[in-house]
Structures are given as structure tokens and as C-alpha cells.
Amino acid sequence: MNSDAAFLTMTFVVDIDEGGWRPVVLDRLGMNVAMPTSLMTVTDQSGTSTAWKHNHKELYVVTGRYSSDFLAKHHDFVESNASFRDEVYKVRDNTRWVTSSKNSKGSSYSRSEYINGAWSTVFITGDARSEPELGLMISSISTERATSLVPPTDGVLLRNARLLLEEMKASENTGTGSGEVGVSEERRRQPAAPNREPSDASGTGTGFLINTEGVLLTNAHVVDGCSSIKVNGHQANLLASSNTFDLAAISVPGAPLGEPLQFSTKSAGLNADITIAGYPLHGLLGGLNVGRGSISALKGLRGDEINLQISAPVQPGNSGGPAVDRFGNVVGVVVSKLDAVEIADLTGDIAQNVNFAVRGDLAKVFLSSNGIAFLEAKGDDPMDGEAIAQRLQQATHLVQCSG
After folding, report:
1. Which of 19, 87, 346, 360 has the fewest CB within 10 Å, making it most exposed?
2. Based on the number of CB atoms within 10 Å of its own CB, is 77 exposed (0-12), middle (13-18) or buried (19 or more)?
3. What share of the chain is helix, strand, coil (3-state, %, to 5)?
4. Mean pLDDT for the chain?
5. C-alpha to C-alpha distance for 119 and 96, rounded to whole angstroms
């Protein structure tokens, strides 16, 4: 969807800018390769050969002009680094040699082009942590004119990103509720809207830790109009709020809040298992509650693309709690439940387990657009139910609002 493209574009452009990614023109070689120039240091330069090293990762680049004899030895060396023969990719022709290999420590790649009587070569090697940078560098190697990595300013990607940011800004000024951007007044008056009652009579909701700086994510309606916000009794500060997504970020500097949750790098799939955590009916029920269910639909009420429909049980006070997948990674933020009483009045039937969560992808858009750091999962290792509950227990906290 456009919101996914907007998020990917915004995060990509930020990473490109922060890393100083630029096409490095290798004039003597007749080639160019993109590098994070602000993070790379030249470690050796002699003749046509230049070597770079990443300042924070095991990532190395060597470029140079070589003879045919050296070319064969070099590519044989890259091939010999592979753990298994099926982890080697080779191209051999009169004007181009390519060798790629992988082992338990990382990957190596070399591309050589026969230009003006010699072999121009770019060699890149790195460990597993540097795979994203290594992949972008490899795909950028070219003998053509260097082009910018940033999408064109008049293209559809940056246009969608701007529209998303403008819509978020406009919603803050108009007070439009989550999931109702651009909805007519007539449609807003339709019955059976989700019940966003955030808490019980004491004014409570849920939040969960998203980084090591003491920042929690919750719903905007949980902290809306609060003169004081507390997390586990500690005073909290409101950092950012969006009525469009019904999300808010709050900080509790110095408070012991456990280990932050990580966001999934993948969108939640239909019928995927999820676990939610929160403080429903605080004062009536005792402490943190954990519930399980699945993704019932990839859209919310009336086709709303901000929310997912979930079957996990939601009660007042659950708002702002995490919804995690079977790997314990965040795929949504619990936001509301369908008004079962109103549905019963309209249809004569009681709706069961029709609840909603803000899509995790859009939660990342909200955080990124407000310059708030969050963690993403580095791998996918399934966890059992008890392990997931322990992870949620460490990161999920009671949010109290006073008017």
C-alpha cells in the first residue's frame, strides 16, 4: 500500500543521508560504487589501488587495476572463501568476471571489468552485520554514469511520503480521529464505530517500551487532555501525538522499564498468531493481562487501512498495548474494540472478538516522522507462549492519566 511505500522511502532517505551514501567515482578504473562515505575511511592508497574500511563494522572495499594473471588468482581467492560449492556464484567472459561467495563469517564479492587494456576491479567483503550495506554497494557497481540513490523529488515515492506527512500534520490541526481521515460528516455519524474508551474510571491505559532511552508507545486517546501522565507511578513526558494513527510517544527518563520490544521487519499476515498485553479494567483485574488470538482481517472498520482486525480479547485499559507475532516482535498497537451493544441494537446479534490494532508498519512511520528511535528484529526465532509473555511483561507498563 502507499503507506508502506511512504515508510520505506522515508526510512531509506534518512539512512542514506545519515550514512553519507554517495556514488564514489573511480576515475582511473572507469567504474563507480556507492558507499556510506561519512562512515568509511581510506586505509591504503597506492598506484591505482585504494582500500576503505567501515568505521563501525567489519566491512572492507578494495578497488584497483590488475593484470590478467593477478585477476585469476584474486577471483580464485574469493571463491575459496565459500563454505560450500553451492554458495559460489561465478561469471567468466572476455570482458567481465564476477565471483561471489559466502561462509559462516560473512560474504565476499568481486567484480572485474576489462577496460582500456586492464581489469578494473571492485572487491567488497563483510561480516553478517554488514549484509545490508554490502548488498547495496554490490548492486550499485556500474561502468555507467553515477546516479543519485535518492528517489527523484517529483517522483511517486517522495510524493507519497510528503502526502503522508501532510495528512498527519493536518489531522493534528483538525482533531480528526484515528482511521477517519477524509471521512464525511455523514459517515462519521454512522453507528457501530469502534469503542475507543481508553481506560476505566481511574483514567488508565497501556504503553510499551520501544527503545533504551525510556520511550514508550501508546494510543493518543490514552493521553489526550492529560495534565499529568504517569508510568508505573513515574512522571512521564509527552513527546509526540498523532490523531491520524491514534498513537503517542511518551518518555520516562531514568525509570527502570525493562527490555524494549522490537518491531517486526515484516507486515503481519492474515490469520497470523498474535499475543497482546495490557492493563484492562485496572483496579478490577489484577495487574498485567496477556491474551492470544490472530489477525482476522488486514483492514479495520469500513476498510480502514490504518488498523488490523484482531481476535484477541480487548477490554478498556488495553489501549496502547503491544500486539506481537510468534517471534515476540511488534506487529500492531491495540487501539479499540467494536461496540458490541450498538451492534446488537442494530443487528440483533452480539459481535464477538472484533477488535482492532494500529498496524505496526504505520507505528514505525509515526515514530520515524517524529525522529524517535525504535528497534527492529534482527532475526526470526519462534518463541513459546511463556517466553513471549515474559518478554511482554518486561516491556509493557501501566499508563495513568489525570485531567
Report:
1. 346
2. middle
3. 25, 35, 35
4. 83
5. 9
Using the structure block, give the residue that is written with the C-alpha cell 564514489: 24
Domains and CATH numbers, the chain: 17-140 (3.40.1000), 193-402 (2.40.10.120)
| Residue in 283, 254, 235 with CA at minimum distance from that of residue 399 | 235
Place of cell 556500474: 142
User: What is the CB neighbour count within 10 angstroms for residue 225?
Assistant: 8
Of 308, 326, 314, which is closest to residue 392 (Cα–Cα)? 326
Beta strands in 47-179 (DSSP E): 49-54, 59-66, 88-92, 96-103, 106-115, 118-127
124-135 pLDDT per residue, tens: 999 988 998 999
Predicted local distance difference test score (pLDDT) of residue 179: 35
Kindly tell me the number of DSSP H helices and DSSP E strands found in the chain. 9, 22
